[in-house]
Design goal:
The protein contains 15 helices and 15 strands. The model has no long low-confidence stretch (mean pLDDT 94). The protein has helices at residues 20-31, 46-56, 67-71, 90-98, 113-125, 140-150, 168-177, 189-192, 195-205, 247-256, 264-267, 273-282, 374-388, 398-417, 431-434; strands at 11-16, 36-42, 63-64, 79-82, 102-105, 130-132, 157-165, 209-217, 299-306, 311-317, 328-333, 336-340, 344-349, 355-359, 421-422. The longest helix has 20 residues, at 398-417. The chain has a 9-stranded mixed β-sheet with strand order 14-13-12-11-7-10-9-8-15, covered by helices on one side. A 6-stranded parallel β-sheet has the order 3-2-1-4-5-6, with helices on both faces. It binds nicotinamide-adenine-dinucleotide.
Length: 437
């Protein structure tokens, strides 16, 4: 007689913010219906809300124009996915933790230390699971590097050098013209983009960071670097053909080649030539990169000292075109070293002086996957944690994520105040004490 398999129920999600990241979660759910179902969505923009609602079959009574409406209902999903903009994470995180929703929270947790601590405190007090979307921890190359280090193959890690090459057009798109251009409206560049890297470095070194120093500024994307004759908008500019940052080339050029996904989809829902031309004529993405209201850095370095005396350096630069691989890192151990471009890994042993190479994208499957497989890995791990009611598959939980956000805040203090900064210990009250009167 055939044994009946126990029926595994998919876990259920409520998405708050159906922009680029929220839609990505919905698309994952739509293609893995046995694992996960989106049962609620809150999003003010009709097109984006309707896209997720239709894709996932969300019932109208659980489709909202604001996350606050969803928070008025008793809990109706296993977890909430918070994919609103950086400065809009704290309020929903506190509200939904109190409603006992488990939580997938986009990075950065919040733009201030105090808010980050409040979110983590609320998660601990309400005993809910939290995964922060530090996707790099979930990539195949990180898993392989961790395996090599944990096997003892390079001895003790002594120092690390990490380069984050932000492609020149990505810098212009997100950090000069776009949503992350102004610290007061989102967060610092280090927090918005490179909190992933500082978090990753801490994960690889394996102990907390204790001291940081940092330098960086807006070197190029400012009025004083504006070439003579440049107009305020690329569509009106006579020198646009010679400018690598031309919005006409970066966006209309892509549309002409049939590419209408990100970053073009950020400009407008009408991704025809006419629609994108209109967006360039009137919207923020058609502006000259030397005539924007940006204030975040376009290059930055951070030096780090860790609890066991290990050191690391990090460089972010918005001036490059990396075609093969992405972040480039060298990890120096007492018995060997590792080099990676986030796809290939080379492990060199000092005793044999031999190098072994691993291709973590040998199947080619990762190329189409967000953040080198990290988006997929994060979703798998979070869903697994929800299904089992066990946080062990979450690699980016509350305490360690708070710790690495505090590294970023300390590095920013160093950059702005020209100081060497200690990284503070998280200011959390143990849950049992917090619950007492
Ligand atoms: N983990 C990563 O690697 C990664 C990558 C990109 C972005 N992010 C982060 O993800 C978050 C979202 O980024 P995005 O690119 O998807 O932004 P987005 O602007 O495309 O999406 C945010 C959405 O929130 C919606 N929103 C605004 N007010 C709302 C409200 N009251 N209730 C519900 N929804 C509301 C907006 O209309 C928008 O659609 C940001 O914090 C960003 O920094 C993370």
């Amino acid at each position: 007689m055939k044994r009946k398999q126990p029926v595994k129920k998919p876990v259920t999600l409520l998405i708050l913010g159906a922009g680029i990241r929220g839609a990505g979660v919905a698309e994952y759910a739509a293609s893995h219906p046995d694992e996960v179902q989106v049962v609620g969505v809150a999003e003010p923009r009709d097109f984006h809300r309707n896209y997720v609602a239709r894709l996932c079959g969300v019932p109208p009574e659980q489709t909202f124009t604001d996350w606050r409406e969803a928070a008025e209902k008793p809990r109706f999903a296993d977890a909430v996915v918070i994919t609103t903009q950086d400065a809009m994470h704290t309020e929903p995180a506190l509200a939904f933790a109190a409603l006992k929703y488990h939580m997938l929270l986009e990075k950065p947790m919040a733009p201030t230390e105090e808010e980050c601590e409040r979110i983590v405190q609320a998660v601990l007090d309400n005993d809910v699971l939290l995964a922060v979307a530090h996707v790099l921890r979930y990539t195949p190359y990180t898993t392989k590097i961790k395996q090599i280090i944990d096997s003892g193959a390079i001895g003790d890690v002594v120092s690390l050098q990490c380069l984050e090459p932000v492609t020149y057009w990505h810098q212009a798109h997100s950090y000069v013209r776009g949503n992350w251009r102004k610290e007061s409206e989102s967060s610092s560049m280090l927090m918005a983009k490179s909190c992933h890297d500082l978090d990753w470095i801490r994960y690889i070194i394996g102990v907390p960071c204790r001291r940081v120093s940092s330098f960086g500024n807006t070197f190029h994307f400012k009025a004083s670097a504006r070439p003579p004759g440049a107009a305020d908008r690329c569509l009106d500019c006579s020198i646009e053909p010679s400018c690598p940052y031309s919005a006409k080339r970066l966006y209309l050029g892509r549309v002409m080649e049939g590419h209408t996904g990100w970053p073009v989809s950020v400009l407008t829902t009408d991704t025809t030539v006419e629609g994108v031309t209109k967006a360039l004529r009137t919207g923020p993405y058609g502006r000259c990169v030397y005539a924007c209201d940006n204030d975040v850095v376009d290059h930055q370095v951070v030096n780090m000292e860790f609890e066991g005396g290990q050191s690391a350096t990090f460089t972010m630069t918005g001036f490059n075109l990396h075609k093969d691989g992405g972040r480039e890192t060298r990890i120096f151990g007492t018995h060997g070293e590792i080099w990676t471009n986030s796809i290939l890994i080379k492990h060199t042993d000092y005793l044999t002086e031999e190098t072994v190479c691993y291709d973590t994208n040998a199947s080619g499957a990762m190329l189409d996957d967000g953040h080198g497989g990290g988006d997929y890995g994060l979703m798998r791990s979070f869903i697994d944690a929800l299904a089992r009611g066990d946080d062990r598959s979450i690699l980016s939980g509350p305490e360690e994520t708070l710790e690495t956000h505090l590294m970023v805040f300390a590095a920013e203090r160093s950059r702005k105040n020209r100081t060497i900064e200690d990284v503070p210990f998280p200011n959390l009250v143990p849950a049992a004490v917090a619950g007492q009167d």
